[in-house]
């Protein structure tokens, strides 16, 4: 999916991906991905269409995020008795969604990893100071031993994600064991995150100065 040039050097809104370091990766862009991004940004898209095409883009991002997880080599026996040298995921992965918009990505993860465990973090902004604060967090008991796919579709400033990652680190999750799965990210958010957490991997579909902040309301029908 995508050309070789796209995977090596890719521009989004005139920002070179190289400036964000090797741990920020962008979904290889092609006409299908661009169409999905266009539909989700169009104010005239109906809610049913929005959810359908959002789920398609989420699935692509989740599958690319899973490519960042470690694999081990294995050998299986085919129905004909032949040996096949293949790969399998290493055990010890889980998902964590940042409520509420991050929950939109949970089904895409379950579709790819049937029995994966999923935790949740709720981050709210203080009405007076607008400071982001964590009000709820629920994780698997052994999360410190797992690779974590952190799911949050829209990042404008990165503040919510920074708070969520701080909570994961308080639960002894290693920074290098976190993979952030995201749909749309601004340059400001990207720079903030790679600066604050240089060892964390980030996978997004697009870096653009304008983020579709209506995503959660449109997806869940609360607009």
Automatic annotation (TrEMBL):
Its main location: cytoplasm. InterPro entries: PRTase-like (IPR029057), PRTase_dom (IPR000836). It is found in: Cytoplasm; Nucleus. Residues 30-208 form the Phosphoribosyltransferase domain. It comes from the Eukaryota. GO terms for cellular component: cytoplasm; nucleus. GO terms for molecular function: glycosyltransferase activity; GTP binding. Keywords: Cytoplasm, Glycosyltransferase, GTP-binding, Nucleotide-binding, Nucleus, Transferase. The keyword rRNA processing does not apply. Belongs to the UPRTase family. This is Uracil phosphoribosyltransferase homolog. It comes from Acromyrmex charruanus. The gene is Uprt.
